[in-house]
Amino acid sequence: MALKGNPGTAFAKVKAFLDEAIRRNEPHRVPLETTDKEHGRREVRRSWQTRKLNWFADRPAWEGLQSVGGVEARRTAEGRGTVERR
Fold it and tell me: How many domains is the chain built from?
């Protein structure tokens, strides 16, 4: 399930947690990286997932929640790059 900005403060809390965990390279994260090259574009996608949810005060409202994760896409084309994290 993709978490967007609309379900209360859950999006902001999960984003802040994952951003900080990624920045600090914390050991509980499980990274996966893939690379695609086609049509003159290179895209590197990195994903993270963690089952560490003791920080998430809203967890009781999310029945069955077992983990949270995020994906970062770095695209390069024609010498320009973009980064998107979701």
Answer: 1
